[in-house]
Structures are given as structure tokens and as C-alpha cells.
Amino acid sequence: FHSVLNHLLLSLIEKYNRDHGKKHIERYGRLLCYDDCTAWDLTEYTVIGGDIYHYFAKAKTHLDAPPVVGAQQLTRRLVEAGHDVCVITDSIMLPTLSDYLKTHYPHIDRRERLYRVPNAEKAAFLNGMGWDVFVEDRRENLIGFMGTPYLITTPYNAHYTDFPKLLRLGPIDTAMSELERRLEWQLTPVN
């Protein structure tokens, strides 16, 4: 969900900088930026350590996250072409994410296509449901997926060299248009 349909990290960084920007500048010389987050453990980039994660527990952080550029258009085209779009997340914020989908992705049937699945079980879950394509920002979650896995490049996964380059999508702001080009043959409406 996050980094595929919405830019949660941008929302978190904006709120962190609003609340702790002055201290962050004093320590690091500038505000926290998206490209600073080169690992999953955000505690090493902040002046508040583990308290950074309290932002993840706030519905507003999720609801304020901007949609990923091109994701609304691509998912709409997939649905219009007769494909199902499944949204999976490890987040405990399912009611909030359902509201987010209702607002930003009303074309996705969230009653039947929004699932909470632990990260380690995502590939097996999608394999069991027979899904063809899996777009993810965590390399580990793609391992074992039997369809076509796509990894969106982010600062925290750019260092991986063992993932096939062909299946690596560009940075988050261009990934959806790149994916749309790769899936173009599947976007013709089914009659």
C-alpha cells in the first residue's frame, strides 16, 4: 500500500519536520528529507529516535499522504480493462486505509480487495489467490512470488543489487508511468 499507492513517508516527514524541525536542523544542518531515509530503521535519522514511529499510529499521517504519482490513473485503467486490483498491507490501520482508498481510489472495491497480510506472508498470500503482478517497495516481500514481481526503487532499497534490473521500477515519482508502459498490453479493455 505505502510507497505503491500513497507516499506515507512524505506525510510522516512533513509532520516530523513540523514538530521537530528546529532540533533536527541544529543537529543535522537541515530538515529531514525523503532521500535521507536510506534504511527501514528511521530512528537513526531523527532527533527523537523510536518516537518517530508514533506518527505511523496516527490516522492523519495516513490520510494526509499524497497518492503516488500515476497510481490513480494506472489502477483505474486496470479496473476499466477488467482486471482486479488487490491492496495488501501489513498496517494495523485498515479502517483508515479503507477511508483513504474511498477518497483517492474509489474505483478499487475495498470491501473485497483490501487485506491485512504480514509482510513475510505477502508472496504466499498472493500466490494462493492466483495474482499475476505484485508491486512492492520491500524486496523481501517479493521473494517467492510466482507471478511478475516489481520493486519500486526507494532510498531504503536502492542498495539492493540482487534483484533483476528488468523488474526494478524507477523512483516512486516515475514508477507508475513506467509500470503502465510495461503493462500496456494488459490495459486494453476486455470485451
Report strand %. 5-15%
Mean pLDDT: 90
First and last CA, distance: 29 Å
Q: What shape does the CA trace take?
A: globular
Radius of gyration equals 17 Å
- For the report, how would you describe the main beta sheet? 3 strands, parallel
Helix-strand pattern: HHHEHHEHEHEEH
| Count of separate DSSP helical elements | 8
Overall structural class, as computed from helix and strand content, comes to alpha/beta
Low-confidence stretches: none
Percentage of residues in helical conformation: 25-40%
Strand order of the largest sheet: 3-4-5
Number of strands: 5
Keywords:
alpha/beta; 39% helix; 8 helices; 10% strand; two-stranded parallel sheet
Short description:
Helix content is 39%, strand content 10%.
Overall description:
This protein is an alpha/beta fold and 191 residues long. It has helices at 8-28, 59-63, 71-80, 94-104, 110-113, 122-129, 139-142, 172-182, and strands spanning 87-89, 114-116, 133-136, 148-153, 168-171. The chain has a 3-stranded parallel sheet.
